[in-house]
């Protein structure tokens, strides 16, 4: 009997599999098991609709058998089986198999990346085997047939012996090579692992005869060492019902915690578990976790976000990035939807739409759960925020603020009046009647900000100030611009919105114009202006800030590459009610050099307060000593 040729498309896919550069060869087992499960589904369906076919739960199973001597791995199922024609059509032609309806070369090229992300079907067997035998008897036939292929050359079909309905796939496992181990596909423990990893939630039992050891009877007599003997016992390797398919009411938090840790989603119990099922145009179940702590690599490039993607209990992707926005990258968990097929290529676009739809819903779900947490379990939220708040703020800042509406209600900052983290909503609801802005102060730590001279006036007016201690804070807020129609305003900014105080300081500045001009001349480009301060009450001096770029932002940008010369516009503000101002005024009348020294000293003081380096510390130290007389 002449060997039959594969159809052209099949040949191409087969070629891809045989010469697979793809490293994740282990998924072949998942593919074959899921085909077996599909086949059992079909016979189960038949038993429901055809009264001649009986249904006995115990008759439906998948069996894995490995034989190291022959190097064969056999996957047996009690499914619907295939007739001769079906063997030929389903396994000989890709178009029929529905696996990969590759239409053109381009898609095949894309296909290389797609392998491993989504189902690749029966042909994946050729990644680990160069001789594949399929023995099958259809539920509709008395005869059984054997299909065999040694690869690209084609396949043979002949009648064979097989009394039971179902399919048996026998893979002759390749020999180990220098770069690739195939032996493991014959090892009991690695097969167990693979099944746990990819097929744990297949509905039907996946059985394997597993080697065990027991005491030999009669050898356990007193004074004698017991002898042991090996024996084999059938074991079901999969747990069959996935936790997320169970009813919420049946589950305790402990069950979720155990699952979370078994899956290595995190090393301690999750902070929050979100389990929900949605029925609708797209039906899906999600089980999401918010970790209690950020993984050690969370804020690095090494961290990879993503959720596990299941199709009816079969894992099709370990980390599906598209399901999570970056700002929720910390979320762990999975999505299971019967609307995903194992094979993306079937209707690539449609999948995409479903994926996007689910991703959108997941995003909303996480947001709402977090909002609820703020209301119902604030302590927990604060714990969450201390770990992942930075990520939310990056989220506000990135993509030109595209996600600010999603995120703004989740933000928290330390409050000067509440002495704890507060939301923007809380801030705004507490604002005084005459208060125009949401005030903030940026600095390294809460303690340092607390002491900033620039906060004096705003505090004096008993307005609340938000303290920004993360690098990203001010950048994020600039992106936000407003919250509930209230603009953000730095306590260091040029215009604080207090008209009376502003008028007063303008007047003072005017009155001392000559002195301030002289000081500005002394300091040259270091400052844009020297003027009387409206914001200082007890402190002598501070820097204020003109323009979009703040002094804090300058500091942060300077630590990044490519920004060495970036500079915020600084204004030196002098407290004209401070005793030192009298001394300066006197000096201005008598000794201009002294005013020059004072100007430099005050400027350097202001820099120190900001946590900025002073240009000439030695000169500064010497000048201070000159004052000690
Ligand atoms: P898919 O599973 O996406 O249809 P595959 O390449 O995995 O694509 O399988 C091709 C076809 O071969 C299946 O659609 C099915 O008709 C048939 N098939 C594969 N394995 C079995 C099996 N164990 N029992 C019955 N039919 C099978
Ligand atoms: Mg398949």
Automatic annotation (TrEMBL):
InterPro entries: HATPase_C_sf (IPR036890), HATPase_dom (IPR003594), Heat_shock_protein_90_CS (IPR019805), HSP90_C (IPR037196), Hsp90_fam (IPR001404), Hsp90_N (IPR020575), Ribosomal_Su5_D2-typ_SF (IPR020568). Residues 1-346 are annotated as: A. ATP binds at residues 31, 35, 77, 82, 90, 96-98, 117-122, 167, 346. Residues 556-629 are annotated as: C. It holds the Pfam family HSP90. The keyword DNA damage does not apply. GO terms for molecular function: ATP binding; ATP hydrolysis activity; ATP-dependent protein folding chaperone; unfolded protein binding. Keywords: ATP-binding, Chaperone, Cytoplasm, Nucleotide-binding, Stress response. The keyword Ubl conjugation does not apply. It is found in: Cytoplasm. Residues 24-177 form the Histidine kinase/HSP90-like ATPase domain. One of its GO terms (cellular component) is cytoplasm. Homodimer. NCBIfam families: PRK05218.1. Belongs to the heat shock protein 90 family. Molecular chaperone. Has ATPase activity. This is Chaperone protein HtpG. It comes from Clostridium fermenticellae.
């Amino acid at each position: 009997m002449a060997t039959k040729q594969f159809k052209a498309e099949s040949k191409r896919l087969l070629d891809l599999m045989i010469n697979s550069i793809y490293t994740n060869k282990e998924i072949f087992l998942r593919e074959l098991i899921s085909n077996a499960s599909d086949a059992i589904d079909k016979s189960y369906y038949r038993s429901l609709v055809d009264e001649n076919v009986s249904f006995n739960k115990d008759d439906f199973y998948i069996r894995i058998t490995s034989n190291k001597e022959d190097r064969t791995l056999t996957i047996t199922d009690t499914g619907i089986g295939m007739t001769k024609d079906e063997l030929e059509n389903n396994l000989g032609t890709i178009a029929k198999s529905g696996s990969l309806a590759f239409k053109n070369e381009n898609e095949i090229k894309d296909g290389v990346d797609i392998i491993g992300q989504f189902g690749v079907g029966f042909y994946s067997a050729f990644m680990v085997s160069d001789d594949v035998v399929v023995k099958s008897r259809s539920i509709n036939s008395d005869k059984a047939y054997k299909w065999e292929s040694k690869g690209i050359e084609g396949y043979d079909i002949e009648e064979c012996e097989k009394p039971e309905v179902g399919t048996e796939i026998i893979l002759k496992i390749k020999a180990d090579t220098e770069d690739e181990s195939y032996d493991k596909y014959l090892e009991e423990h690695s097969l167990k692992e693979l099944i746990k990893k990819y097929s744990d939630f297949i509905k039907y039992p996946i059985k394997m005869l597993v080697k065990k050891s027991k005491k030999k009877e009669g050898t356990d007599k007193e004074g004698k060492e017991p002898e042991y003997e090996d024996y084999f016992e059938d074991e079901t390797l999969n747990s069959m019902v996935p936790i997320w398919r169970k009813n919420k009411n049946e589950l305790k938090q402990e069950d979720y915690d155990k699952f979370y840790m078994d899956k290595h989603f995190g090393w301690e119990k999750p902070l929050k578990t979100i389990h929900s099922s949605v029925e609708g145009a797209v039906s899906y179940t999600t089980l999401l976790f918010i970790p209690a702590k950020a993984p050690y690599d969370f804020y690095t490039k090494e961290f990879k976000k993503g959720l596990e993607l299941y199709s009816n209990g079969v894992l099709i992707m370990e980390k599906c990035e598209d399901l999570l926005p970056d700002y929720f990258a910390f979320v762990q968990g999975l999505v299971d939807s019967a609307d995903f097929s194992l094979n993306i290529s079937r209707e690539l676009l449609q999948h995409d739409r479903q994926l996007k739809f689910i991703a959108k819903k997941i995003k909303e779900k996480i947001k709402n759960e977090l909002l609820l947490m703020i209301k119902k379990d604030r302590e927990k939220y604060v714990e969450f925020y201390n770990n992942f708040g930075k990520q939310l703020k990056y989220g506000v800042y990135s993509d030109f603020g595209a996600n600010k509406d999603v995120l703004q209600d989740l933000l928290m900052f330390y409050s000067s009046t509440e002495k704890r983290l507060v939301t923007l909503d809380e801030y705004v609801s507490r604002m005084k009647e005459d208060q125009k802005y949401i005030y903030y102060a940026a600095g390294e730590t809460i303690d340092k900000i607390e002491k900033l001279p620039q906060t004096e006036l705003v505090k004096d007016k008993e307005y609340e100030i938000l303290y920004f201690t993360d690098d990203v804070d001010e950048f994020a807020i600039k992106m936000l611009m407003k919250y509930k129609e209230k603009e953000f305003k730095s306590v260091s900014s040029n215009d604080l919105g207090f008209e009376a105080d502003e008028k007063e300081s303008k007047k003072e500045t005017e009155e001392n114009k000559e002195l301030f001009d002289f000081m500005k001349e002394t300091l040259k480009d270091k400052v844009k202006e020297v003027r009387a301060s409206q914001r200082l009450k007890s402190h002598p001096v501070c820097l204020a800030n003109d323009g979009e770029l703040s002094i804090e932002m300058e500091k942060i940008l300077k630590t990044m590459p490519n920004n060495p010369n970036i500079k915020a516009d600084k204004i030196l503000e002098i407290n004209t009610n401070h005793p030192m101002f009298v001394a300066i005024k006197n000096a201005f009348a008598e000794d201009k050099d002294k005013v020059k020294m004072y100007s430099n000293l005050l400027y350097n003081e202001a820099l120190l307060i900001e946590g900025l380096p002073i240009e000439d510390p030695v000169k500064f130290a010497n000048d201070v000593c000159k004052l000690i007389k």
